[in-house]
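User: Structure please.
Assistant: Input sequence and predicted structure:
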Amino acid sequence: SCDASQLCNCSFMGLVFIPPGVMAKITVLNLTHNRIKRIQSQDLQQAVNLRALLLQSNEISSIDEDSFWSLEKLELLDLSNNSLAHLSPVWFGQLFSLQHLHLQGNSYRDLGQSSPFSSLKNLSSLHLGNPQFSVIRQGNFEGIELLHKLWIDGSNLSQYEQGSLKSIKQINHMILNLRNSNIFSEIVRDLLHSVTWLEVTEIKLPVERKSLVQNSTRPFTIQKLTFKEAFFTDQTISRTIVSLKEITSLKELEAINCVLEGKGIWNTKEIARSGQSFVETVTVVKIMIQNFHLFFDLEGMESQINKLKRLTIASSNVFMVPCKLARHFSSLLYLDFHDNLLVNKRLDETICEHSWPSLQTLNLSQNSLKSLEQTAKYISRLPKLNNLDISQNNFGEIPDACDWPKFLKYLNLSSTQIPKVTTCIPRTLEVLDVSGNNLKEFGLQLPLLKELYLTRNQLKTLPGAAPIPNLVSLSVRRNKLNSFSKEEFESFRRMKLLDASDNNFICSCEFLSFIHHEAGISQVLAGWPDKYVCDSPLAVRGAQVGAVHLSLMECHRSLVVSLICVLVFLVILLLVAVGYKYHMVWYLRMTWAWLQAKRKPKRAPPKDICYDAFVSYSENDSDWVENTMVRELEQACPPFRLCLHKRDFVPGKWIVDNIIDSIEKSRKTLFVLSEHFVQSEWCKYELDFSHFRLFDENNDAAILVLLEPIQSKAIPKRFCKLRKIMNTKTYLEWPAGEQQQQVFWENLKGALKS
């Protein structure tokens, strides 16, 4: 049950004794909420480094005298809520380092005849008492000189020996749960010289006629007195006010969750005769006054309030302060009336002319004020006011102009249902809070503003920096902010704190680049990095903004797409160039034609042979072909049937099909080769198809006629078989002389007949 720091948690394990073998290295041992009944000598003997021992909420009724003797380093011992019927000084005799001792909630009735704590020289806080605790004797606190906190549950304390607490020289904060009012004064007299803050709970104050400072040691140190859940009447509160004036050191009075039975009929004459109070601060929270609407206006108390500097009356159904009384708060600097029943009509009486003349801070939040214009008008009567909180009032509207105190610097208008901000808000402000108002924009000119709070609104962008040039702190938490740019951020030149947490950030590349590369932004952003989370893109939703890194494709999609398009275009261009250079188009066309030709029979049946020869020639050689060769062959005896594209191709039929069909319907294919033939595109096609159809069959259906000398290398390299034929087979060459021409015709006719 131990972690790396040697904190061992054995709570809620149903243990009936301390587990054996507690090791020396353990520093914290938590045995709370078990069923341990006894602590024996050997249980903690080895735990010499133990600093905290938590044994509360067990059933401990017996502790061996030397159980804690080895715990010289122990600083915290909690034995509260057990069944100890007595306390023994021997238990604590060796606990020289003990600072915090909790013994409340047991069953002992007293602390014994002497002090159980005499050896605890370093004790800082001590918690004592239980519902059965009834007696405090002299000497019970001997040996204790200084306590930061002393808490005594004396709800049923019935006997207190005078001087029992006098031995403690200094107590910073004492909490006393006390119902017996008869011994209250005796305890207070013993504490006036030592305690700084005394807190008394559940007491029903007596009508004390005897002086509270009688037989008290001076000088007095008590500065603050708090009553919690106490019960007052008109008579007891009057007497208490008189009695407390004798405590010249008392500066602050506090009453929390108390009950006042009465109508405010106080003995103001006796209070006035008793002189001036030294109290400067009065705080009243949640005081319950039955029939509070019948409560008197405290007329006659004017002389008792002119030295008061701070007054808080909260959650106590205050609906008005009479103007006459308000004018006597001449020294009051701080007034807090939050969570009461003030309305605009009563505010006119509460803040009348010349009332609260020194007031600097006013809190009217959580009241029932409805008109901001009227509220500002009444508050403008306070000439020295610089701090105003009117939040959580349902104003609903905001006028274009308002009257305010001339030196107002702080204004809280949060959660007031104002739909926008207008020039009603004074230009003198240094701090403005308009959180929780569903504002969609903020563009006020506030040249002195240093802090601006816009939490829980509907802003989609940061407010402009130009109207608020001196802004140091800005809160736009929980708005509709998606991002903010480097320019927006840097426009606030004096910004030291920006709280943009709890927004739904769109983690775009620009936003992430700014966040990752802006120097020192982590020191400026409040709640960084935990409270800054991406809402989109979907792939990174829920991830912290600072931890997200998007890919190049996600960040520069348009650029990447453009580059891809350019690359594709260049590849296509390259393929076109390569195809042109290496006749790729030709290969594709020929492949298609060859595939079509393959589906047809390799040789047409004899009945389908229409021509003796298909003549392939260039248009530039048409004069020789048509006027010389055709006349010679077709007028021969017997005549030869020649197929010429000009004459015999079927009109409207695809030219490639015409070429293939003509070659298939001819017994021979006669090529009239020349330089023009090599350059002719259609001659190439005809040569190509004959190459596919005829040369692949390894026959002699092709007849080559060289009209003019031509180099075999001039023939395109892709016609490898044609080049081979020209290199290995005889071809007919048109001679220049007439005698040789006759031999040429005889040879050509012989070739056609073969």
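Residues 615-740 form a domain with the Rossmann fold fold (CATH 3.40.50.10140).
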